[in-house]
Amino acid sequence: MTVIIIIAVLILALIAAAYIVMSLYPAFGGRASKAEQVRTSRSLQYRQGKFVYPFETAAAEDKPEGGLSILRDFLKGNPNSRPKQPLQPVPLVAGSIRQGRDTRATWFGHSAVLLEIAGAAIFLDPMLGRAPSPFPFIGGKRYSSQLPVELNDLPQLDAVVLSHDHYDHLDYGTIRALQQKTALFIVPLGVGAHLRRWGINAERIRELDWWEETSFAGLTLTSAPARHFSGRSLLDRNTTLWCSWVIQGGQDKIFFSGDSGYGPHFAEIGQRYGPFDLTLMECGQYDLRWADIHMMPEQTVQAQLDLRGRLMIPIHWGAFTLAMHDWTDPVERVLRAAQQQGLRLATPRIGEPVQVGAAHYPSIPWWR
């Protein structure tokens, strides 16, 4: 009996310690106030205390065959899951940013994209840290040892735009570094609580539900559906919303997928807002066991057709290993599927700008 009591006490102590760490360590983010929870509860996406996608969506660990088989595969490893040598980004000259009104997108790896449109500059999901983890010294590190441009050298930005609060999209260190360089933070419902905890004034944060829009600096942004989930700890699963973004400025319309499994929302977005001059579409970190929340590359191409996209840049690859496939599989598969459908793809190196409407787009298979 004494041994059982000791074990129980130890378990309770570990639970208490974990709760204290998650409550006090800022990288885990913040929690919505009572007033904010009231607003959240009015969302059509909010049911029984959680945000949900309209159709049944399961993460890998929710499926009977999921958790143990995934753990086994991760422990087994894949020697081709990351590059043999660090990737070398194309240097981006800070002085070239915001120097024209042409629309151009510069990929920083994974889903981080610096978008210049109608004279404005916005950073989409700027996860620029070492590893997608609350503790940067833990977890698989970035494939490249440097960024296209140092954060301190960036000019002032009109906005940082976030799709959801997972660590590979919302990074505490990056947000702190961009805090004084950014006028606005545009986020899905509930995500503002993290930013407020990190010292960003509420007046600089705009939180949107699906199909809500906001305007600034000559741009109009609309929060659109995505099929995914959210959370930064064991205690906040799906308490914040996730989304994709429709970005309109000047003559151009851009679509940013965020993270999403395939679903009918792509066709709905295409019907409401398409065609799109440029789409930034996730195509990596997939597995059949979690296909509800991350598209397979062939589904990415189908989503592009649904959206009526004219040019696609594949994202959500090229920076971190978060799945068991070879690190080049996402771009190879999406390129092959796009060619079969006659779709246009740009495959820039990290740091290489893509200008919408240009006669030619980057298409060299640099990863091979």
UniProtKB/TrEMBL annotation:
This is L-ascorbate metabolism protein UlaG, beta-lactamase superfamily. One of its GO terms (cellular component) is cytoplasm. It holds the Pfam family Lactamase_B_2. GO terms for molecular function: N-acylphosphatidylethanolamine-specific phospholipase D activity; zinc ion binding. It catalyses: 3',5'-cyclic UMP + H2O = UMP + H(+); 3',5'-cyclic CMP + H2O = CMP + H(+). Counteracts the endogenous Pycsar antiviral defense system. Phosphodiesterase that enables metal-dependent hydrolysis of host cyclic nucleotide Pycsar defense signals such as cCMP and cUMP. It comes from Paenibacillus typhae. Residues 122-317 form the Metallo-beta-lactamase domain.
